[in-house]
Amino acid sequence: MARVARACLRSILKIVNSTLGLVGIAMILYGLWMLRVWKRDMESPSFDDFDYTALWFIYTFLSIGATLCLITCLGHISADSSNGFCLSCYMVIIFLLLLLETLVAADILLNSDWEKDLPEDPTGRLHDFREFVESNFDFFKWIAMLIILVQGFSILLAMILRALGPNNGSKHDIDEEYTSARLPLINPHLQTPQYVVGEPRFTTKNDAWNINK
């Protein structure tokens, strides 16, 4: 029963964890699109003296997407191995990510001038992204709530799976079944012959002659 529950928890954790991977892939694709648009704008003569360090928003977007993909890989490895150390690392990373997201969301909601705390973005991608989010605020609100619920559920599943521990008994059970299947072919009650320790008996020539007769 515990083996079935462990397998179900592994599958559910992988499915839930895949949501973060999809979000990370979407961010990487959007970041690559912004980078492509920026390269197209760089062909204009007005961008001859453009500073490449000003692409911080695009680089940050790509980095966050790649980080989510790495966390997804760690979650899949932890779910598949059920290793306590891997699950603990996964829970800590998800918790820190959830805490960071909460702080950023609180700063945006409570601070109306939050853009002033960020470096200047000459590419204009930050302004375009903000307008895109504001025009589709209801959609992004549900997406944000889904991501938070997924992260919390992932931590809960990882805690339960860590409490169950790795499935170390599966190999032992298979060995026992294999041994029991072989027992009918081997006499389990076969006893080793008993040997009597005594003086060796040598046959004399006369005895051998009488036997031959």
Automatic annotation (TrEMBL):
<feature type="transmembrane region" description="Helical">
    <location>
        <begin position="87"/>
        <end position="110"/>
    </location>
</feature>
<keyword id="KW-0812">Transmembrane</keyword>
<feature type="transmembrane region" description="Helical">
    <location>
        <begin position="139"/>
        <end position="161"/>
    </location>
</feature>
<feature type="transmembrane region" description="Helical">
    <location>
        <begin position="12"/>
        <end position="33"/>
    </location>
</feature>
<dbReference type="Pfam" id="PF00335">
    <property type="entry name" value="Tetraspanin"/>
</dbReference>
<feature type="transmembrane region" description="Helical">
    <location>
        <begin position="53"/>
        <end position="75"/>
    </location>
</feature>
<keyword id="KW-0472">Membrane</keyword>
<keyword id="KW-1133">Transmembrane helix</keyword>
<protein>
    <recommendedName>
        <fullName>Tetraspanin family protein</fullName>
    </recommendedName>
</protein>
<dbReference type="InterPro" id="IPR018499">
    <property type="entry name" value="Tetraspanin/Peripherin"/>
</dbReference>
